């Protein structure tokens, strides 16, 4: 079997009124965290940070919980998505036009607490959200 294609992304969180909210992006009817393909010879963490900036304009992420990650089971055409967890000090998300596509990659974004976020995600991504909540806690 061939090696899976690796995507890398970040579960971006921010604290609002003492509770962590998770940034979800919607493309068509599918919700996920910011992520994209790791380029040849690119470090997956660097790819994850690049993808967050390209898809949301967020910069200056704080990887305060370290660089641990979780990966999804293979899906689609033998893809695996690797996610890290980082905090954003701002919620100022923009969905810029992709030069490749001629329109934004995503149709909508939301900052949601765990339960409403989980309700929008497919099981493969729910597992990542649950892991991330265990990383950040909710204190």
UniProtKB/TrEMBL annotation:
The keyword Phosphoprotein does not apply. Signal peptide: none annotated. GO terms for biological process: AMP biosynthetic process; ATP biosynthetic process. PROSITE patterns: NUDIX, NUDIX_BOX. Residues 3-134 form the Nudix hydrolase domain. It holds the Pfam family NUDIX. Its cofactor is Mg(2+). Gene3D superfamilies: Nucleoside Triphosphate Pyrophosphohydrolase. One of its GO terms (molecular function) is bis(5'-nucleosyl)-tetraphosphatase (asymmetrical) activity. This is NUDIX hydrolase. It comes from Candidatus Muproteobacteria bacterium RIFCSPHIGHO2_02_FULL_65_16.
């Amino acid at each position: 079997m061939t090696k899976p294609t690796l995507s890398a992304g970040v579960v971006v969180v921010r604290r609002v009124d003492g509770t962590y909210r998770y940034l979800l992006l919607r493309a068509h009817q599918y919700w996920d965290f910011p992520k994209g393909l790791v380029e040849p010879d690119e470090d997956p963490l660097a790819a994850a940070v690049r993808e967050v900036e390209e898809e949301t304009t967020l910069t200056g992420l704080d990887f305060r919980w370290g660089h641990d990650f979780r990966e999804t089971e293979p899906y689609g055409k033998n893809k695996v998505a690797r996610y890290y967890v980082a905090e954003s000090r701002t919620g100022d998300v923009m969905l810029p036009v992709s030069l490749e596509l001629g329109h934004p990659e995503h149709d909508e974004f939301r900052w949601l607490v765990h339960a409403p976020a989980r309700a929008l995600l497919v099981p493969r991504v729910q597992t990542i959200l649950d892991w991330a909540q265990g990383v950040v806690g909710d204190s």
